Amino acid sequence: MADKKIGEYYSPPPKMGKWEGFRKFIWNSETSQCLGRTGSSWAKILLFYIIFYAALTGFFAAIFAVFYQTLEGDKPKWMLENGLIGSNPGLGFRPMPPEANVESTLVWYQSSKEDNYKYWVDETARFLKSYEELPNRNHVNCSFEHPPPEGKVCGIDMLGFAPCTLDNKFGYNVARPCIFLKLNKIYNWIPEIYNDSKSLPEHMPEELKNHIKEKQSLRPNETGVVWVSCEGENPADVENIKARDYYPRMGFPHFYFPFKNIEGYIPPIVAVQFTVETGVLINIECKAWARNIIHDRSERRGSVHFELMVD
């Protein structure tokens, strides 16, 4: 058999050290390759990825552009029953416990020690200050006979919350703490008011029923209110609440609704001043009352729960 030429056989590459092999991988002067590729190969890859990511960016930009065309800046796309929030507002309360106890709803303090109740006074003042600092160029003075005109919103007279004021330390220094309640905002939600004492629900507290009857007989034009009641959750809690007073009234006036996201809108608030038995933990549940507010204690729909303990 004829001998094969040496050129016909594979010739292994010369052995190189690690550093020398690495340098050759970075730049091979014999083949003009950088990192194993020639300049034309790198140019083709770079061009491909530029086109690929440009097309990908354009695709998602077009999708977001179409999506945002379906939204409006001043109101949600899905409202009331069609939205995630739904059409059943809940209640919130202030002041809240410290952030360290974020899951707690306990308001606990010693009325005889200023450094102990100071947190609750400061937290309440901070909450009310946010109301005072809201822009008021759209605010008008409202009443039951004069609701706000189109494009305007009702202001809040902070003097109506006396004696629940900072000057009085919101009652924390005399064991008569003030708890502020607010109704959650739901866009375009209109309350269906209980303004007829003959059609009140059976489970409504007697105190509130009597209040509505009195309003209906004396001031029938002032019954357009989302009513509020605060009760002890258990018989022992009911006994330990000696008195409760509502300021400026026992609910939220109808002229604050519906919420339309108009600049300067202020959610109405109610101050409830409790006179309670000291040294006892009291479970309290406050409810908002309207025909289209459903109460569910397990999910806290239409109500709010907190505990109050004054030492």
UniProtKB/TrEMBL annotation:
Q: Name one GO molecular function term.
A: ATPase activator activity
Chief subcellular site? membrane
What topology in the membrane does the UniProt record assign?
A: Single-pass type II membrane protein
The family database entries (InterPro entries) matched by this protein are listed as: Na/K_ATPase_sub_beta, Na/K_ATPase_sub_beta_sf
Q: Which GO terms describe its cellular component?
A: sodium:potassium-exchanging ATPase complex
Transmembrane parts of this sequence: 46-68
| Pfam families per UniProt | Na_K-ATPase
Q: Name one GO biological process term.
A: potassium ion import across plasma membrane
Keyword presence, Ion transport:
yes
Report the subcellular localization. Cell membrane
UniProt keywords (A-Z) are:
Cell membrane, Disulfide bond, Glycoprotein, Ion transport, Membrane, Potassium, Potassium transport, Signal-anchor, Sodium, Sodium transport, Sodium/potassium transport, Transmembrane, Transmembrane helix, Transport
Q: What does this protein do?
A: This is the non-catalytic component of the active enzyme, which catalyzes the hydrolysis of ATP coupled with the exchange of Na(+) and K(+) ions across the plasma membrane. The beta subunit regulates, through assembly of alpha/beta heterodimers, the number of sodium pumps transported to the plasma membrane.
Q: Which family does it belong to?
A: Belongs to the X(+)/potassium ATPases subunit beta family.
Q: This protein is called what?
A: Sodium/potassium-transporting ATPase subunit beta-2 isoform X2
The gene for this chain is LOC115625835
